[in-house]
Write a structure and sequence with these properties.
By secondary structure, this protein is α+β, with helices and mostly antiparallel strands. It is 23% helix and 30% strand.
Length: 349
């Protein structure tokens, strides 16, 4: 699976859990509404400063975050580049806080908030690298769910250095308490990204990543076989029919997709007939006439190799299915292998 795919997929998940905001750093007349929509108000702050304003730019490599941009933990492992630009107000220095208000889980944030970065004495309109790092950058490591990582920029009240000791704990860090203690007021700019623990790859997630296997995924879910395929106790070889293969088989059997998905017993028999337990058989391991026992008790499939590089899988109830993409790794701990085929294997029922 490509890195781009994971990123797009996890971003889609993030959108279902964290409301999207609308701008690179929140400012303007609709700022309060944007912060409320994202939950930053009231989770972290009560509002934005009414006496000063700044633009805040945060980038990881070549990705400049807009509010809610999804990044994998790996992509945000190193400190970002941060620059500021004064819009209004006369502060000489800024303080930057980065907090995770969703720890350990967005549904039960009992450790709100985790401190991920604290930098003081940033020259107004300057770069964070010119400031004083009080608490070093900690990249995201969300144990569960999709977390927000919120950058809060404050105007320091005087031209003097802000004397802030290293916090004794990074957990249950309160932006409100910190701001009150050092007379910072409300932040002058806010932005954030989201991140989540990357799903471990397995047979099901690989199938989900291939649009041509969406019918197979729906069938596996309807049959209740997700757990068995996602975390097998031993390696598996899976012959995965494409959507077109399912459509042709349903037409030949005079079934609708709804009828098949609704018949759990038949569906389970057909699906388990596509799984060979106990072995991760790559194309090089398949030989002409090889008989493979399947998860469907007492039912086998037979391999046919009519010409070099051509692999067919034979079943008694359907025409031969051709392997059109071989040796797709599942990524699971057992090293299971997937072969995409252009037909549905049908046992004797």
């Amino acid at each position: 699976m490509s890195r781009a795919y994971w990123r797009a997929l996890l971003a889609l998940c993030a959108l279902t859990l964290v409301p999207a905001a609308l701008a690179q750093s929140v400012s303007g007349d609709n700022a309060t509404a944007i912060l409320e929509e994202s939950g930053i108000i009231p989770d972290l702050i009560d509002g934005l400063s009414t006496t000063a304003q700044a633009e805040l730019s945060v980038s990881f490599g070549d990705v400049t975050i807009e509010d809610g941009t999804f990044l994998t933990p790996e992509e945000a492992a190193n400190p970002p580049n941060v620059s500021t630009e004064a819009v209004s107000g006369s502060a000489a220095y800024y303080t930057l806080l980065t907090l995770d208000p969703d720890a350990p889980d967005p549904a039960n944030p009992t450790r709100r908030s985790i401190l991920h970065w604290l930098v003081t004495d940033i020259p107004a309109g300057g770069d964070v690298s010119e400031g004083n790092v009080v608490s070093a950058w900690r990249g995201p490591n969300p144990p569960s769910g999709t977390h927000r990582y919120v950058f809060l920029l404050y105007a320091q009240p005087t031209e003097d250095s802000l004397q802030v000791p290293t916090p004794e704990s990074i957990a249950n860090f309160s932006a409100r308490d910190f701001s009150a203690e050092y007379e910072l007021g409300e932040p002058i700019a806010v932005t954030y990204f989201t991140s989540a623990k990357q799903a471990e790859s397995n047979i099901v997630t690989v199938a989900q990543s291939v649009p041509e296997l969406s019918t197979l995924v729906a069938a596996v879910q309807a049959a209740g076989l997700v757990d068995a395929l996602a975390a097998p106790a031993a390696p598996l070889t899976v012959f995965a029919p494409t959507n077109d293969a399912f459509a042709a088989a349903l037409a030949a059997l005079n079934f609708t997709a709804e009828e098949l998905l609704g018949n759990t017993e038949l569906l389970t028999a057909v699906l388990t007939y596509h799984v060979v337990p106990g072995v991760a058989a790559k194309a090089a391991d398949l030989s002409d006439g090889l008989v493979l026992p399947t998860l469907l008790e007492g039912a086998n499939v037979t391999v046919s190799i009519p010409a070099p590089g051509e692999v067919l899988v034979l079943s008694p109830g359907a025409p031969p299915a051709r392997v059109i993409q071989a040796d797709v790794p599942s990524g699971d701990a057992q090293g299971s292998i997937i072969h995409v085929i252009d037909g549905v294997l049908v046992p004797e029922l």
